[in-house]
Amino acid sequence: MDKRPETIIDIQSMIPSIVAEIRYYSADNFIGAPIDGYLAPKIFLSIPACRALEKAQSMLARFDLGLKVYDAYRPQMSVDHFIRWSQDERDIKMKAVYYPELDKKDLFNQGFVASKSSHSRASTVDVTLVSLSSPFFQELDMGTIWDYFHPASWTHYNKLTHDQRANRMLLQQVMSHVGFTGLSQEWWHFTLKQEPFPNTYFNFPIE
C-alpha cells in the first residue's frame, strides 16, 4: 500500500467553498456499498489539479454557481473492488438506478469498469454544478445522475432539454478553460491536461 505524497492534498484545504458528496464512501453508488479504500469522506487531488479547480470555482462564483465533487483520487484497491463486483453476476441490487438497460457483464466489456482508472493518478475529478445560494446547494439539471451507465450520460447526447445542454456546455467550457479535458462518455469526468503523475496509479487509502 502506498503512502500519500505531500503533493497530493485534500481539496477542501485549498478550496473550502467546494461542495463534496463522496458517493463511494457511502452506499449510494452503482455497487450499493462503501468502496474499499474510502475510509473518510474526503477528496484528494494533486496540487496542480487543485489549483485548476480553484480557478474554476472562482469563475463560477461570479454567477452564484460552484462545483460539487463526487469523486477525485481513487485508490487502485477501489478499482480492484469494482472488478471483483463486476464478476459477481448475482449482485445487481443497484441495476435499476445506475445501469437499467445493460447486463452487468457488459459494464466491463463496454468500458464502464476497467482495471485501471485515471482517477488513481490523482488528477481526475468527477464534478457537477450547484447553485451556491439555493438550499443544500441544489445541483443544476444535467440530464442524468452521476455514474449513470447509459448513452444519455455522453457529453453530447442529443436528446436533452435546452437547459440540460446549456448546463453541460457551461461545465465543459469552464473545466476546459482551467486546463482539464473531458471524457466524451461521461459529462462529469475531467482529467488535468498537464497531470503531474501521468504513469502512476496510487494505492494509498482515503483517510
Between the first and last Cα atoms, what is the distance in angstroms?
13 Å
Please work out how many helical segments DSSP would assign: 6
Q: In this structure, how is the largest beta sheet organized?
A: 5 strands, mixed
What is the percentage of strand-forming residues?
Answer: 15-25%
Oligomer: single chain
Share of helix, binned: 25-40%
> Mean pLDDT score, rounded?
95
Overall geometry: globular
Rg is 16 Å
Structural class: alpha+beta
Query: Using DSSP, what is the number of strands?
Result: 7
In the sheet with the most strands, the strands line up as: 2-4-5-7-6
Low-confidence stretches: none
User: What are the secondary-structure elements, in order, as H or E?
Assistant: EHEEHEHHHEHEE
